[in-house]
Amino acid sequence: MRTRLLIGLSALVVALAAVGTANASGFFGDDDGSVHEASIEAIADVGITLGCNPPVNDLYCPNQSVTREQMATFLVRALSLPAGSSVFTDTAGSVHEANIAALADAGITVGCNPPANDMFCPKKSVTRAQMATFLVRALSLAPASGSFADTAGSVHEANIGALAAAGITQGCNPPVNDLFCPDKSVTRAQMATFLTRALNLDASPRVVVTDTGDLAGVEIGTSEAAAVASLSAKFGTPTEDLADRCPYFIPSPNMRYIRWGSLIAVIRTSTDAGGELGLAGWRYKLDGTGSPEAGGPLAEHIELPFGLELLDPIGDAATASGVGIQTTNYGWTVVDLGYATFEATGVSIDPNAPIDGVQQGFGFDCE
Questions:
Q1: How many CB atoms lie within 10 A of CB 284?
Q2: Residue of 96, 211, 229, 323 with fewest CB within 10 Å of its CB?
Q3: CB 343 within 8 A of CB 351
Q4: Sign of torsion, CA 64 70 76 77?
Q5: What does the domain layout of the chain look like in residue ranges?
Q6: CA distance 304 to 4
Q7: Dihedral sign, CA of 121, 123, 129, 135?
């Protein structure tokens, strides 16, 4: 599991520093914008995938085909299968050898060259039909009648039907989805979605602290309308929308706070010169009991670099990470990260500072 958010954040107080281990939307830098992105993050969360470019592993290679040996490792990790003893003549030396053996011992694979089945064909790509059979065996799903126009006569037809009946596949030609494309190779991105559905993993959007100045991939400075539309598309209908706030000592309402549970986006609607700025910062604020508020991302969906954890003491966590701390009028600034808390009154931290009232969390209320 990746690390989680410690402090409220904004790009307005200090320049952003190049911290660079997280990406705008999660673990990997090459899945942003993919329809499978949330599922890729979900299987990374639980350790089913580590990445595709060890030892860095900041890439997932979503468009590459899944090989049979990779499939073995995905399933062994997903199901926590014990080590196996089965031997195939073509798996010696593979980094996946032990997992292939575990898959065979569990009865999820019988081999690739019937009737002998003394080979596994580890480097071959997995077809969508074969993937259906792997998953049906792994999950002990009951066979079901075929529901796609292109699977009749396939030896995998009943298993493809089982996968559809269980909601693990919807088809390959949206929005009609009357085809399964059984002979096409499964991509790593598609595999993530199949596994997320099969295991009922949490694929909620992630909020990742990066050096690029964004909120869940929406850049700081994005216009008010575009920011609200993009964030609502990710997180749904806001749980609260507070307009016409006026911090920053500008003598007119100039801020809008929109929240999804504990996640609060701050939008500056005007400057002292009358110009709009847009998305100005954000904050993740726990309730009075230290729990996330309903209607937004869970705490485990907030990812922070440098090993900082939710509810760590700010000074202790930053010191342990070798990050300098200084006080500001708005609270604590983690200098080397380039982010600041806005839960302070003066220089004393108030983690339960209200959103509406004199202390706004991001500044001061004019009312």
A1: 25
A2: 229
A3: yes
A4: negative
A5: 9-23+205-349, 37-199
A6: 5
A7: positive
How far apart (Å, rounded) are the C-alpha atoms in residues 277 and 266?
11
> From the CA atom positions of the chain, what is the Rg in Å?
25
| Exposure on the CB side of residue 124, measured as CA atoms within 13 A | 15
DSSP 64-90: SBPBHHHHHHHHHHHHTPPP-----TT
Mean pLDDT by 10-residue block, N- to C-terminus, for the chain (367 residues)? 28 24 60 85 91 91 96 95 92 95 95 95 96 95 88 94 94 93 96 95 74 72 91 91 70 82 82 72 70 80 55 51 43 36 35 38 43
Of 279, 282, 283, 280, which Cα lies nearest the Cα of 224?
279
CA–CA distance, 264 with 261 (Å, rounded to integer): 8
In the three-class reduction of DSSP (H, G, I as helix; E, B as strand; rest coil), residue 173 is classed as: coil
Exposure string for 170-207, b = 16+ CB within 10 A, e = fewer = ebbeeeeeeebbbeebbbbbbbbbbbbbbbebebbbbb
For tokens 């909601």, name the residue. 167
249: left (phi over 0), alpha (psi -120 to 50) or beta: left
Integer distance in angstroms from the first to the last C-alpha of the chain?
A: 42
Handedness of CA 337, 342, 343, 347 (dihedral sign): positive
Q: How far is CA 83 from the centre of its chain?
A: 29
